[in-house]
């Protein structure tokens, strides 16, 4: 448990990181550093986006798979590391 | 004999009436007395209390469901992912990739008018701009002036003006180069490879090639007024690539029904006729739609298009609305009278599409799809045809008035622009 917390702290300590959310494979957030309503919103929307991105990659080449997804917007950048059981979502503002 | 007598009355007792009489007996009983008593009590002090559950946030419920035990595999997942994520975060915070990158999601302002190019002398004389062409480098735009409303031979002088948009001293009102021409210019086309050559067709039927880099006399080659050249205004000129790479010839089409292929002869400064194609009514292949042959028998050509995919095919649109697919290599001789030309004319028409009403002003082949081309005529409709079938695939009503020019977008395969008589250009 402590290792999990330490890892999250290390990630949170990087430059410009605004928040971290860990979502399980069903789209339910299990750990977060943001407030509840934002967490739930991010988790639900990003889960759908990751599923769509993953199916896009796999449709184009069934041997290929999604390893990382980055969505850059005007205000910040959302990085998503997908895995079989969990997703890690990190929101960073690179210009901070 | 008969005497009256009175007798006593006799009574008979009824037997049955007696049995009707019931016997009556009465008996009674009574219970013993019932004892009853009354008492009441009262509470000295009272209290009221109630409970109610609050609607709890679904989220917090979800969040705290697994709070007690750590989800399985979370530690391993984080170990796997941590390095990648930290590396990306560090790289992102240092990257300059998106500096100054702006995305415009606003769709309203896609087209803006950059310059309004004018030639004051031509404007004073009321000349119309008959043809516009970009040169191959994309920085020079050439415009031909002439008249389109005159029905008779005109000997007015007119101009071909070029503007160089990337020059520092560019001014929209001052053309960089003005070429004087002795009659009205009706068609213009810049060379696809050499930025200084411009081919033009005149109202008198001549075809001229100008070289804008020559300061003395820009006329490079002239077709001259001979039996070879056109007699009627040349409505379209085009540069045709040949089999030998780098060589081009000039194709000119006029309203007398002749399409001529010229070769540039630099030594003599002339255009030498290479091949002649004459379109005659009788030789037009008739598709399933019958077409009544009228007039003098020639098919006046108003527009021309080369196919970028097939070097042998070219498309011709006529004054009467005919659309024909023609081939450069056709060998059938034309049925027109041979008037002492150097090259015997041939009939090029191979296939005719369904005719539209009114002259076909513009044809353009799609640069992305092998078999598609667009045609625009005076009926305000733009027809999308396939080279393989006679009737159009799609007809779009672009405006209520005439459509003068239609062209495919060079970058987006499904977009084309149409210029209409009302002065509007629409992108579809």
UniProtKB/TrEMBL annotation, chain A:
> InterPro entries, alphabetically?
DYNLRB1/2 (IPR016561), Roadblock/LAMTOR2_dom (IPR004942)
Single annotated GO MF: dynein intermediate chain binding
Q: Where in the cell is it found?
A: Cytoplasm, Cytoskeleton
Q: Which residues form the Roadblock/LAMTOR2 domain?
A: 4-92
Q: Which UniProt keywords apply?
A: Cytoplasm, Cytoskeleton, Dynein, Microtubule, Motor protein, Transport
| A GO BP entry | microtubule-based movement
Recorded hits in Gene3D superfamilies, A to Z, give: Dynein light chain 2a, cytoplasmic
Q: Which GO terms describe its cellular component?
A: cytoplasm; cytoplasmic dynein complex; microtubule
The entry's function note states:
Acts as one of several non-catalytic accessory components of the cytoplasmic dynein 1 complex that are thought to be involved in linking dynein to cargos and to adapter proteins that regulate dynein function. Cytoplasmic dynein 1 acts as a motor for the intracellular retrograde motility of vesicles and organelles along microtubules.
**Family, as annotated:** Belongs to the GAMAD family.
Q: Which PANTHER family match?
A: DYNEIN LIGHT CHAIN ROADBLOCK
**Name of the molecule in the record:** Dynein light chain roadblock
Query: Which organism is this entry from?
Result: Monopterus albus
The beginning of the lineage is: Eukaryota, Metazoa, Chordata, Craniata, Vertebrata
